[in-house]
Design brief:
20% of the residues lie in helices and 21% in strands. By secondary structure, it is an alpha+beta fold. The protein has 2 domains: 298 residues, 3-Layer(aba) Sandwich (Aminopeptidase), CATH 3.40.630; 86 residues, SH3 type barrels, CATH 2.30.30.
């Protein structure tokens, strides 16, 4: 294969079983981003998708705080084939979105060759900027080429070649092709809402839900939002003050929703049963909306520890130029796992949910890996995003390992979570140890550095 798929963005998630969170940590000033444009989502046929080169990324996946603890799932080999859902519109390394928005300027595509031979490209080494939202990056320079990902206005790309109507780009060492029409050598002027618009996430923020303090409520028009049972709370947007990268990370402090265990939501968007056990057993059609989490050996609640961890990670990411959506910014937030995931899907480039496991042997850190079960991997939105989830998880574990954090087994455990079942952006539940693990201030700072290093490795920044 000539061109490799390009890994798109990331957002932090929420969902683990039996956890706790602690409070404190430094904060950065909250700034709001008003999303001025609301994008209409339309289902289009394959023919329409081929005719348009702007994609609308599906909405999300609620993090399930409490599905994954207490049991260690036996790791299964990942299947190497996906079902028919991954057809010619699916990229090898990064599946495409489920929905596409019809390009308003679709007639201009008549001027672009349907396919350009690779030999026609002239090598170059330039920097380019994307000039529109939801622009496709394809595996081949062809309208029928597989879509690898989509990028938004202002995204900086390395240009490696040019041909009639097409631009060859390289991101994270992988090659893709974009319509030259949507690439400029000059960085476009961006409105606040455009700067906050995530890559690979729906640009459908409800301006009425983002106030002057940066609070972001759940917009019930967002995909999967109506499956949430607890959604009266709000997340908070923080923007980096310098060296901004144009990437937003959703940091989800696991647990911390009063009354979360009294309600249940569908484990999967399609109502199918869970493929693995955890806080909610294998075969469960409904899962606890938000679990309360475990308690550390020293009496600290998991919810208190995850909040402290989230605040430290927020500060580390802001200092590195990332914007941050804090899904839970205090002791309690009235957002269940689905609401948390949907907010992340629509505001961020990646979703990282922070947890500690409920075992008691100081096992080390690991991430919750998408189960190998073929039927689960074939279910949307999992089918279109599981490779992103696993790539983000591996990057985070690599970052933790790099700063000397103990890693459990191979660094992952297969688990069917509400979070990844509803996520439409790179999304991971990261377990930072268990109830016997150290969660002192010094360790929290080390974990924050390792996770931020992992984010940088994933995004190449």
């Amino acid at each position: 294969m000539v061109a490799l798929a390009l890994v798109a963005t990331v957002v932090a998630t929420t969902g683990c079983a039996g956890k706790k969170e602690s409070s404190s940590a430094t904060t950065s000033s909250a700034v709001t981003t008003t999303a001025e444009e609301t994008t209409k989502k339309q289902e289009v046929s394959t023919a329409e998708t081929a005719a348009s080169d702007t994609v609308q990324s599906p909405s999300s996946d609620a993090a399930q705080n409490g599905e994954s603890k207490g049991k260690e799932a036996t790791s299964q080999q990942e299947t190497t084939k996906q079902q028919a859902a991954n057809d010619t519109n699916t990229a090898d390394a990064e599946p495409v979105q489920e929905e596409a928005a019809v390009n308003e300027d679709v007639e201009v595509l008549a001027d672009i060759p349907d396919e350009v031979p690779l030999a026609a490209f002239t090598k170059t080494a330039e920097t380019g900027y994307v000039t529109a939202n939801r622009v496709n990056i394809r595996q081949q320079p062809s309208l029928s080429g597989k879509k690898m990902s989509s990028v938004n206005v202002g995204t900086k790309l390395r240009i490696t070649g040019k041909a009639d109507g097409w631009t060859q780009v390289e991101v994270n060492g992988k090659t893709g092709y974009v319509f030259a029409k949507y690439i400029s050598s000059t960085q476009p002027q961006q409105t606040q809402s455009q700067q906050a618009a995530p890559q690979n996430a729906q640009n459908t923020q409800n301006t009425a839900k983002v106030n002057a303090q940066g609070d972001i409520g759940l917009d019930m028009s967002w995909k999967y939002a109506n499956q949430s049972a607890i959604h009266s709370g709000s997340a908070k947007l923080y923007k980096a003050s310098a060296n901004r990268k144009g990437i937003t990370i959703a940091v989800n402090a696991g647990h911390g929703t009063k009354g979360g265990e009294s309600k249940k939501t569908l484990s999967h968007p399609d109502g199918s049963p869970k493929s693995t056990g955890g806080t909610n057993g294998k075969g469960a059609v409904k899962s606890i909306a938000v679990s309360s989490g475990m308690t550390f050996n020293d009496g600290t609640t998991e919810a208190a520890a995850t909040l402290k961890m989230a605040q430290a990670l927020k500060t580390e990411l802001l200092n590195r130029g990332y914007d941050v959506v804090m899904i839970r910014d205090g002791a309690d937030v009235q957002l269940d796992n689905i609401a948390r995931t949907v907010i992340a899907n629509n505001t961020s480039n990646a979703h990282i949910a922070l947890h500690w496991d409920s075992t008691g042997n100081d096992k080390g850190a690991f991430y919750m890996k998408v189960p190998s079960t073929p039927s689960y991997k074939a279910m949307e939105p999992v089918a279109s995003h599981w490779k992103q989830h696993d790539a983000l998880g591996s990057a985070l574990v690599g970052g933790l390992k790099g700063v000397g954090v103990k890693i459990f087994s191979g660094g992952s455990m297969e688990m069917d979570l509400t979070q990844t079942s509803y996520s439409t952006i790179p999304s991971v539940d990261i377990e930072l140890g268990d109830k016997a693990s150290d969660h002192s201030d010094a360790t929290i700072q080390k974990l924050a550095k390792g996770l931020a290093d992992g984010v940088g490795a994933y995004f190449g920044k």
